[in-house]
């Protein structure tokens, strides 16, 4: 469904009732901090975004849909760098103080104002094509696990392995440029459990006990993430009789999958009988979140998503941006799962874990 009208609050957000919802997980500043001086945490994140400028600028240079892309890429790098300089000098500039949402917003503004709409389009298309080739094999491997709990664990690990593909991380952008990314290797290289937040056994127990009527899944990256991670999990939910809403960004941001792109993916994966590898997909819906960032503030989503999600009893947030850097501690009026890989050292240190550690946070709501 297309997004239209004013944004609204995500209806399953429990904290909105008492105004305690804060989308950002990390506390960037406290009331006692000097208002015109950046905090150490703010400085840390300003530098994190500064390190991303070369990889974003390089991708912008390669965007052959934009005339004079190389010159405009230099303008983008200069403008965004100047904004970060301003925030270092005065954290209240540019709508600050800064957090991950504002910093993502400013970077996207700089890209769009200099003429770039989707600088990762070609790499998303390439990764989608690679993932399509592996899809049937990944699904068959999951179906071969006879035990329901074991199959769920396998699917979650596939989801985490797919979530490695994130070009918003400067380190992963360099890794992708030099070596590419292999889904099979990513599965093999997952850090061993226990992870920094590890409710997988708790989620497995509830999976075996409960049948959810509707699940809303906030999706993340293109390529292996969506095709080999999210969709096999969604397929398993459909097989169990759960309706599934896949909620995707309205506009491009980094290598996140968009609503329009996800519609195309689903049309390729569904057979003429409307099934996904033998599983009826009539209960699956793709919805536009109204969002345009790799993070999400759930106090502002599309009316279409709010309507589709109102009667859901399971919310799944996937990816570092939506499930870890924002909304890790968000509370819902239904069961919720936050799952993703930690791809910034700053986040790993905050959580007390390791770089490329995994987060599986499950919260049961007892009626």
UniProtKB/TrEMBL annotation:
The keyword Mitochondrion does not apply. GO terms for molecular function: ATP binding; hydrolase activity; metal ion binding. Keywords: Hydrolase, Manganese, Metal-binding, Nickel. Its cofactor is Mn(2+); Ni(2+). Residues 50-359 form the Damage-control phosphatase ARMT1-like metal-binding domain. Transmembrane segments: none annotated. The keyword Hydrolase applies. GO terms for biological process: coenzyme A biosynthetic process. Pfam families: ARMT1-like_dom. This is Damage-control phosphatase ARMT1-like metal-binding domain-containing protein. It comes from Selaginella moellendorffii.
């Amino acid at each position: 469904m297309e997004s239209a009208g004013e944004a609204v609050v995500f209806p399953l957000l429990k904290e909105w009732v008492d105004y305690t919802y804060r989308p950002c997980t990390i506390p960037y500043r406290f009331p006692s901090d000097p208002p015109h001086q950046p905090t150490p945490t703010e400085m840390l994140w300003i530098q994190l975004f500064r390190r991303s400028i070369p990889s974003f600028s390089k991708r912008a240079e390669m965007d052959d849909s934009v005339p004079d892309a190389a010159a405009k890429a230099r303008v983008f790098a200069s403008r965004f760098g100047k904004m970060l300089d301003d925030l270092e000098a005065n954290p209240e500039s540019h709508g600050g103080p800064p957090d991950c949402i504002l910093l993502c917003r400013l970077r996207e503004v700089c890209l769009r104002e200099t003429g770039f709409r989707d600088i990762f389009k070609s790499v998303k298309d390439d990764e989608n094509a690679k993932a399509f080739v592996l899809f049937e094999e990944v699904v068959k491997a999951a179906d071969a696990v006879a035990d329901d709990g074991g199959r769920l664990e396998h699917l979650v690990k596939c989801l985490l392995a797919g979530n490695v593909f994130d070009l918003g991380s400067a380190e992963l952008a360099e890794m992708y440029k030099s070596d590419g990314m292999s889904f099979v290797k990513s599965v093999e290289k997952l850090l061993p459990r226990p992870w920094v937040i590890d409710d997988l056994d708790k989620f497995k127990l509830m999976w075996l006990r409960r049948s959810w009527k509707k699940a809303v899944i906030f999706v993340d990256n293109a390529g292996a993430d969506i095709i080999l991670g999210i969709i096999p999990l969604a397929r398993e939910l459909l097989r169990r009789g759960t309706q599934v809403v896949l909620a995707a960004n309205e506009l491009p941001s980094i290598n996140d999958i968009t609503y329009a792109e996800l519609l195309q993916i689903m049309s390729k994966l569904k057979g003429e009988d409307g099934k996904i590898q033998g599983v009826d997909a009539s209960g699956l819906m793709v919805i536009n979140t109204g969002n345009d960032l790799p993070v999400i503030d759930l106090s502002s989503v599309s009316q279409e998503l709010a309507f589709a999600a109102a009667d859901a009893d399971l919310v799944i947030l996937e990816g570092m941006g939506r499930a870890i850097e924002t909304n890790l501690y968000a509370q819902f009026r239904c069961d919720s799962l936050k799952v993703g890989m930690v791809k910034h050292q700053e986040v790993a240190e905050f959580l007390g874990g390791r770089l490329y550690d995994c987060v599986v946070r499950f919260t049961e709501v007892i009626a």
